[in-house]
Amino acid sequence: MFRPKLPDIPTLPTTTVTPQQTQAPATSAGRPVAPYVGVGVGAVAAVVVVGIVLTALLAAVAVSAVSVAIAAVVLRSLVSSANKR
């Protein structure tokens, strides 16, 4: 009663269709396409790596600035409390 009914598996036709080429492939004027694809992938990888490094450096500068600010506040409070005594 609660079992799902599975659909029948469709059968594929046994005839094969061969595509016909109507236009000759364009010539690349003696330059292969593969090196350009490799350069594109390398360039994208380089941009991603540089972005990650710059983001990490920005985070490190922000953390350093916050820690220096906290140290300055603590030292200021220590110096001001020493002058009041």
Task: Specify the biggest β-sheet.
Answer: none
Estimate percent helicity: 55-70%
Low-confidence stretches: none
Query: Shape from CA axes?
Result: elongated
- Percent of residues in beta strands? under 5%
Integer average pLDDT: 79
Helix tally?
Answer: 1
Number of strands: 0
Distance between the termini: 87 Å
Topology order in helix (H) and strand (E) letters: H
Radius of gyration: 34 Å
- Based on secondary structure, the structural category is mainly alpha
Protein name: SpdD protein
Keywords: Membrane, Transmembrane, Transmembrane helix
Q: Care to give the gist of this entry?
A:
The chain is an all-alpha fold and 85 residues long. The protein has one helix at residues 34-84.
Tell me what you see in this structure.
The protein is mostly helical. 60% of the residues lie in helices and 0% in strands. The chain has 1 helix and no strands. It has one helix spanning 34-84. The model has no long low-confidence stretch (mean pLDDT 79). This is SpdD protein. Residues 1-31 are annotated as: Disordered. It comes from Streptomyces incanus.
Architecture blueprint of SSEs:
Layout: H1 34-84
List keywords for this structure.
85 residues; mainly alpha; 1 helix
